Amino acid sequence: MVVAHSERATLRVGDVFLKVDSDQARIGVEVEAMALAPVPTPKVLWHKPPVLAIAAVPGTALGRLGEPSTASPAAWAAAGAAIRRLHDAPLPPRLGRAGRGLDELAADLDGECEWLVTNGVLPADLVTRNRQIAEAALRPWAPVFTHGDLQIDHVFIDGDEITGIIDWSEAGQGDALFDLAILTLGHEENLDDVVAGYGTDVDLDVIRAWWSLRSLLGVRWLSEHGFDPFAPGCEIDVLRSARARLP
C-alpha cells in the first residue's frame, strides 16, 4: 500500500501501480492529462474502472515534504524547466485544481481560518498573519496547463534529469504559480533553482502567498485523512516560517 484515504488508494505490485478511485471522472482527467502533457509521465498499462494501472517511473523522488532534499541544484532547475514546458503547452479542455475561482477560494480560505482559530488548532495571530500573506495569491491570472498537485514526491529524477511526473488527477487549466509553489512548499531553499530552470520572471511574493494559502487550506483535510501537518518541516512549520519573515 502506497497511500490510502477515504477518496482513493494506490497500491504497488512490483513495477506496477494500481490506483483505485470510485470517482471515474478523476481517473479520466488523469489519463487525459498524461496523454497531453509534454513531460515524462507514467505509461498507462490498462484502465478497468475503478482501477487504473500505470508503470513505475524510473529514478527517485526529488524529495519529501518535511525532509531535506538531497537532489542537486541542477535537478531542481530541471524540474523548473519541465514545469515551464508544461505551462507553455496548449491548454487542456477543463479547469483543474489550480484553476479555482477567486471568490470560491477566498470563501474557503476564510472558512478554514475561522475553523483553525475557533477549534484552537492554531493561534489566532499565526492564522491572521498568514491570511494576510495569502491575499497576494488572490489575483487575476492567465490560465496555463497545470499539474495541480505538483508535490515534491510527485517529481522523479535520475541524477539531474527528470524521469517522470506522477499523479495527474488534479490537472487542468490553472495558475502557473500554484504549481511552482506546491513543488517548493517546505523547500524554500530550492526556489531560486526552480525559478532559474523555469526561465522567466516569477513573482516570488505570490509563490510565498500560495505557500501560506495552501497550508491554511490543508491543515484540516490532512488531519482528517491520516496525515500530520504538525510534522517537522510540514504545513504548520511553513506557516510559522511565513510569519517569521514579516517585519
Automatic annotation (TrEMBL):
GO molecular function, one term: kinase activity
Record-annotated Aminoglycoside phosphotransferase domain positions: 37-200
InterPro entries according to UniProt: AGP_Transferase (IPR051678), Aminoglycoside_PTrfase (IPR002575), Kinase-like_dom_sf (IPR011009)
Keywords recorded for this protein, A-Z: Kinase, Transferase
Keyword match Transferase: yes
Top-level taxon of origin: Bacteria
SUPFAM superfamilies documented for this protein: Protein kinase-like (PK-like) (SSF56112)
Name recorded for this polypeptide: Predicted kinase, aminoglycoside phosphotransferase (APT) family
Origin organism lineage: Bacteria, Bacillati, Actinomycetota, Actinomycetes, Streptosporangiales
